[in-house]
Amino acid sequence: MTTLATTGSDSGSAAGDTLTRDALAVLQPGFDGTTAPDWVRRRLGEGLASVALFGRNVVTEEQVTALTAQLRAERDDLLVAIDEESGDVTRLDVRTGSSFPGNHALGAVDDPDLTRAVSRELGRRLAACGVTFDWAPSADVNANADNPVIGVRSFGASTDLVARHTAAWVEGLQSTGVAACTKHFPGHGDTNVDSHHAVPRIDVDADTLYERELPPFRAAIAAGTRAVMSAHILVPALDPDRPGTLSRRILTELLRGELGYQGLIVTDGMEMRAISGTYGLEHGVVLAIAAGADAICVGGGLCDEGTVLKLRDALVAAVRSGELAEERLADAAARVRDLAAWTARARGGPETEPQPEIGLVAARRALRVTRTGNAAPVNTPVYVAQFEPARNIAVGDQTPWGVAADLGRLLPGTASGSFTGEGAGAAALAAAGGRRIVAVVRDEHRHDWMGSALDTVLAARPDTVVVEMGLPQATPRGALHIATYGAARVCGVAAAEAVLAD
Length: 502
Hints:
The protein is of the alpha/beta class. It has 18 helices and 14 strands.
């Protein structure tokens, strides 16, 4: 076995060192900037096989195309990954809002052909930008309506519905040569804790897990998903000690053994506190590979060269100490290279006909409009009061949402404001003056202050239009109630049209 010099330094790591190359190959790091940093290009020559793009790396599609071309000049079969679910979680449209509705809207329509068409168009756009690996779709069954991190990222609360749309989404995306990554195994839907902050726990029996959580993953595997992403969740019925990402029982015995999955297993972001805050980043990475993961997602937060070198060296040191079998690391690296080779072969395949309007078509079909009062139609400028909850880390705070911009376009002179917390309702009424109010909420059922704000507004102004852009669990109210099943840009466009069409 080849040995390295001092662990934690860059000295002594020869480009031809098989062990070092394997350790680099399993990492899927992010980086800062909108062009390829020198350190990333250098590490590609030393064995790095993947990079990940986040919102900070994206300005325009043309810029992303130039960036991926820069990277591929160093390694033609490079895996370029992105966390592009569409809907609320978008990186390609991070500054404008997504051109495609998310999973919950597609599940509300329940037309697998539409889901397949939407993911195909997304894949076409990604492929045109040089992106070859998408950390999507979410196959989580949203069994807990109070889930703080999944919600509208799920196709729904029905296992059968989630399974058929997960399969359709995988098929559509991969028809364009972009690898799908079905997540978050073994299922993140029945949690009330965000794994970005702590370790969620799912306390249900094994029969429930097998009947409710696993069928969408079985469907994805049957559809040929090229990758599966692990969840940082503790499932005592499967493994009482280790979260999914670090559990051999879950990744190797269940996913590989019982479900027969042979593709790439990638971790969720390893900086998330569920792992880094409990096990430490470097040790967590070693434990994940030992458990059966093949690729390490890192870089949503830590995106520097030093992090990559620490993780590379931690893996090498673990092999040298006997904590990690060299064969397991080599197998993981081989699976990464196999996926990279598949995407390289798939690039430049049959082109799909662009369907630029498919996202808006889907968003319009997803709308649920409920009239609960007899107010007059909206045909004059309004005041849009947006009740803004704290955003989870997966969604981020860069992406705009709501209906204000689109109503302003349709009704020139429309004004808007954002409100949050105690007193939000009174503040919105004062700001609106005499104008008709369009109140925009997101997951009203999860936020007591938001429900109270809506109570205040509706008591004073019963002709208010309510637009729910999150999970529509609260009872529809307002003169007109519009549920969009997500906050993508196209959902806002569709809702604005519906405000005027009533």
